[in-house]
Amino acid sequence: MTSLGILDLGYGNVFSIQCAFNRLDCKTTLVNTPEGIQSVDRLVVPGVGAAKTALNEIARLELTDVIKTYSKPLLGICLGMQVLAEKLTEGADSYQPILGLGLIEGKVEKMSTPSGVLPHMGWNRIQNLQTVENNEPSYFYFAHSYALTSSRDAVGVTEYDETQFVSLVQRENIVGIQCHPERSGQVGESFLKRFLSM
Amino acid sequence: MLVKRIIPCLDVMDGKVVKGVQFKNHEVVGDVLSLAQRYSDAGADELVFYDITGSTREKGITVDWVKSVASVINIPFCVAGGIRTTEQARALLYAGADKVSINSPALESPEFITELSNSFGSQAVVVGIDSYWDSNAQQYIVKQYTGCEKSMQTTAWTTASWINEVQRRGAGEIVLNTMNQDGMRQGYDIVQLSAMKSLCRVPLIASGGAGTIEHFVEAFKEAKVEGALAASVFHKGMIEMSDLKNRLALAGIEVRK
User: Is B243 noted as a catalytic residue in this protein?
Assistant: First the structure.
């Protein structure tokens, strides 16, 4: 039985993610040390809150290098996906974006849509993602105002208010998803299952 | 494309789901966990748990109870009622709530909205507004402490000015409860919702008055709200979630099925 670690930075939706994996009969461990991260076979980087706070906390706990060199399957969820990117504008001053972990190519920026209605909140589709065999639309739950605008590592995109953003990325062992699979019904469960079989 | 959300609201009093008419005469309609599970299975897009004892009786919400909901259901949910401090909100969000919703405490201290938004992000902060058509003043005004008739007060805010204020302070979603309609099942207040929607740069959720499937169609097609909240029509089995979603799809409204 392989072990699944959830990065616990003392904020956000850690418990919801634990529950989601528990419903799949997968036991979870909360990790926040370099040794803890190295000891697990899979790592989930969750996230709700502010990118800068999360990145500062990762640096303070001296986890930056161990996450950057993690070679086993890693899943970033929502803000946890955003911090994997090269650059982020949230919490940055107007001229200089802050640096992410750089595991995924691209820049995370505040979304800009014709209606101006943000956050992008609710159920939306991820295109190019085969979550079910019969090609029925698969809806995931989103709640965010910042997004990866484009990325060479994009695997799935989502359209909101005539604007497209990257909602799913993968580079080798690194996967990132902008929505909340732990809150996305059976579609989300299937996604988490696939991560467990990676 | 972002789909329209159907949001059953479970008014919770002493651990049971209840429903009153125009905020009065509460009757027990079921158990929290079993109703949460039932709606989640039926295809609800989100749930709101509103502890109606909260604001009026100075009673907080049990974190354990939220935890048990979070471990059972796999759709997002929001917790409302009696949240007065950042620490209370933190405890609920850690316990698995996706959002917290505040109403009277935001009116007491608008700064509280800013505080929550800065701490947890605007996507976690919903502001509920109880709006009443004042026929003397000929405008929509905001009411406070509506959970109990005796404590209910009229505030100095017009609904429009309060909507602008809560957005300026970082609210990520607004639930507009049109009190003249609540529990009457005569339809959402399309005129008011349409007027207020034009002021919103965050998602707007309609609340109060749903009685038939047609009322949901109107709210989405005419008032163009992002979501519609309802309680009694679901609790009493007057509308089945699958019928509602099918009918909305037939009307050309994209829904999650």
Answer: no
**B67/B95 Cα distance (integer angstroms):** 5
Q: How far apart are CA A190 and CA B247, in angstroms?
A: 28
ipTM surpassing 0.85: yes
The total number of structural domains in chain A stands at 1
Interface of chain B against chain A, CB under 8 Å?
1-3, 5, 40, 45-46, 67, 70-71, 74-76, 93-96, 98-99, 119-124, 172-173, 200-203, 226-227, 256
- pLDDT, tens digit, 9 for 90 and up, residues A103-116: 999 999 999 999 99
Task: Please classify residue B180 by burial: count the beta carbons closer than 10 Å to its beta carbon, then call 0-12 exposed, 13-18 middle and 19+ buried.
Answer: middle
Whether cis (ω within 30° of 0) applies to the bond prior to A34 is: no
Structure tokens at A152: 């060479």
Q: DSSP character for A127?
A: B
CA distance A8 to B73: 22
Cα gap A126→A165, rounded to integer Å: 10
Mutation pick from B39, B48, B123 vs chain A, by most beta carbons of A within 10 Å, is: B123
Residue-wise DSSP of A55-84: HHHHHHTT-HHHHHT--S-EEEETHHHHTT
For the domain that residue A86 is a member of, what is the CATH number?
3.40.50.880
Above 60 in pLDDT, residue A72?
yes
